[in-house]
Write a structure and sequence with these properties.
Distance between the termini: 55 Å
Number of domains: 3
Largest sheet: 5 strands, mixed
Number of strands: 7
Shape: globular
Helix content: 55-70%
Number of helices: 18
Radius of gyration: 28 Å
Structural class: alpha/beta
Strand order of the largest sheet: 3-2-1-4-5
Strand content: 5-15%
Order of helices and strands: EEEHEHEHHHHHHHHHHHHEEHHHH
Length: about 400
């Protein structure tokens, strides 16, 4: 194990480097540029102090992202992403004057590895394919959230002058404002006055071009026509036209958001299906290709990342936290967790309720007094334990083993 430790205080234009030995003595410090030349200067500094492929010097830095971190990970060394709040607490240990500098912060990070390396986890050694799935799955989820924000903005704007549109297109998916036929109609009729003038043939053509199936299209045309021609309050004509222009601008942003969601979903599914863990993950009830990709994106494919199934459950926030002090003993839901994985887990458990064994487990928890959210979290917790063991043993999901009946020895 290396007796030298490296700390990097990163910034946009440059990075400060500090090397310390086992006694805490600073061996070297350096400021490098944020480019290829700076990275090579860092590698040369590490090599001069004993860095090798067999015994690489570990590095502590306050971010898990960026080109510098990616380049360091390709060298095969352990890279520790230290939480900035934790680093600030360590800084107080070394100075009571609250003095601060980039070089001193780099030295603090190096000393964190020297004294408390066992208390911090290195970045996982995920495969290239696993990292690609993580990038795409997170980007797709961000795009879904961005699309919902755009829908909310459009809905809020339409409420100010165009209630007929909210009546015509309500709900989500194929019924909401983000549906293709809703966006097609609003693009042609961004004001109530324009919508009231739409004929049956125009509405039918708009719905057809938007991909609406011919079955039931006449009934939909009549429904929309009746809504648009009903009696509503109106702004003055010029004001209504101005608000229609704003709707057209919001629609352009919503169209772009919807296209991004679809494009990223296709890319995510393609990358996930090419991953060797895809068959195991999607063998679980409630996991589709896209939701399975989100799970893989957060747990990764480094088999040594988690010590056991309990570590995965704690990371996802599925395992509760016990707070005991004196006579107080409280069990609460875990707040510090991977929120993306927790969000995917909630939907995973909810979708799995359509299958017998998970539904029976959920019903037992509910019968025991748990609320809906707690019962779903417990089901997610059980799924994570099964998934961990399936990935470790390279086996697919087996309901009989996952939900084996518990024998009652008290009888």
């Amino acid at each position: 194990m290396s007796a030298i430790f490296c700390g990097i205080d990163w910034a946009e234009g440059h990075h400060d480097i500090a090397l310390v030995d086992q006694d805490g003595s600073q061996l070297a410090k350096l400021r490098i540029s944020d480019d290829s030349a700076g990275f090579h200067a860092l590698m040369e500094l590490l090599i001069r102090h004993g860095d090798s492929a067999e015994d690489p010097i570990p590095v502590a830095i306050e971010t898990p992202r960026g080109l510098l971190v990616a380049a360091l990970r390709t060298t095969g060394r352990k890279v520790y992403a230290i939480n900035p709040l934790a680093a600030a607490r360590y800084r107080d240990r070394s100075s009571v004057s609250r003095a601060k500098s980039d070089a001193a912060d780099a030295r603090v990070l190096a000393n964190i590895l020297r004294t408390d390396r066992h208390a911090h986890r290195p970045l996982p050694a995920d495969s290239e394919g696993g990292q690609a799935v993580a990038v795409l799955a997170r980007a797709q989820q961000d795009a879904v959230w961005d699309r919902q924000q755009m829908v909310n903005r459009l809905r809020s704007h339409l409420r100010e002058y165009y209630p007929a549109a909210l009546t015509a297109f309500h709900g989500s998916g194929n019924l909401g404002l983000d549906s293709a036929h809703a966006r097609a109609v609003l693009a042609v009729a961004p004001t109530p006055a324009a919508a009231a003038k739409l004929t049956r043939s125009q509405l039918r053509a708009l719905l057809t071009r938007a991909g609406r199936l011919r079955r039931g299209i006449d009934a939909e045309v009549e429904r929309l026509r009746d809504i648009f021609r009903a009696d509503y309050l109106h702004h003055r004509p010029l004001v209504e036209q101005a608000m229609g222009h704003q709707t057209a601008a919001l629609l352009q942003q919503l169209n772009a958001a919807c296209s991004s969601v679809a494009d990223l979903a296709a890319a995510t599914e393609e990358a996930f299906l090419a991953h060797p863990d895809a068959d195991i993950i999607t063998s679980f009830p409630g996991l589709s290709v896209l939701s399975g990709a989100r799970v893989l994106a957060e747990i990764g494919d480094d088999r040594e990342r988690f010590a056991d199934a309990r570590a995965v459950k704690a990371y996802a926030g599925a395992a509760p936290v016990t707070r005991a002090s004196g006579r107080s003993h409280v069990v609460v839901a875990r707040a510090v967790k991977n929120h993306r994985l927790a969000s995917a887990g909630y939907m995973w458990a909810f979708a799995a309720l359509r299958t017998d064994a998970p539904r029976a487990h959920y019903d037992r928890r509910r019968a025991g007094g748990e609320r809906h959210t707690a019962a779903l979290r417990n089901l997610f917790n059980k799924f994570l334990g099964c998934l961990y063991h399936c990935l470790q043993s390279r086996t697919t999901y087996d309901a009989d083993r996952a939900f084996a009946p518990v024998l009652d020895f008290a009888a």
